[in-house]
């Protein structure tokens, strides 16, 4: 799984660097960190609602949206996936 997340992070970094016109990631970045953080919150709520009321497929879709927006926020914050992985490993002891 980390391979998928690492690749996603690479794509996000590339889009943040190049800021292509047709990129949703670039559009988020232009709106600023506050907007991205609110999107993470919005997607978290939608994930919860999907889990409780909308079924497995909708939950998977919303969880993917949440992960994407969180990864964009991490990139804007300068947090690398390895740092998150290390923190999760530390907590598994």
Top keywords for this entry?
0% strand, 5 helices, globular, mainly alpha, 93 residues
Content of β-strand? under 5%
Spatial shape: globular
Low-confidence segments, ≥5 residues, pLDDT <50? none
Overall pLDDT, averaged? 97
How many angstroms does the end-to-end distance come to? Answer: 21 Å
H/E topology pattern: HHHHH
Summarize the biggest pleated sheet.
none
Number of strands: 0
Structural class: mainly alpha
SS summary, helix count: 5
Tell me the Rg in angstroms: 14 Å
Query: Approximately how much helix is present in the residues?
Result: over 70%
Short description:
This protein is mainly α and 93 residues long. The chain has helices at 2-18, 24-31, 33-54, 56-77, 81-91. 14% of the residues are buried.
What does this structure look like?
Helix content is 86%, strand content 0%. It has five helices and no strands. It has helices at 2-18, 24-31, 33-54, 56-77, 81-91. Helix 1 crosses helix 4 and helix 3 (33-54) runs antiparallel to helix 4 (56-77). It is globular, with a radius of gyration of 14 Å. The two termini are 21 Å apart.
Topology:
Layout: H1 2-18, H2 24-31, H3 33-54, H4 56-77, H5 81-91
Helix pairs in contact: 1-4, 3-4
């Amino acid at each position: 799984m980390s391979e998928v997340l690492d690749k996603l992070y690479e794509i996000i970094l590339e889009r943040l660097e190049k800021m292509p016109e047709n990129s949703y990631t670039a559009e988020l970045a232009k709106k600023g960190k506050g907007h991205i953080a609110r999107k993470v919150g919005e997607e978290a709520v939608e994930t919860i609602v999907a889990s409780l009321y909308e079924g497995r497929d909708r939950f998977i879709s919303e969880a993917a949206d949440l992960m994407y927006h969180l990864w964009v926020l991490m990139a804007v914050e300068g947090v690398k996936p390895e740092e998150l992985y290390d923190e999760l490993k530390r907590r598994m002891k």
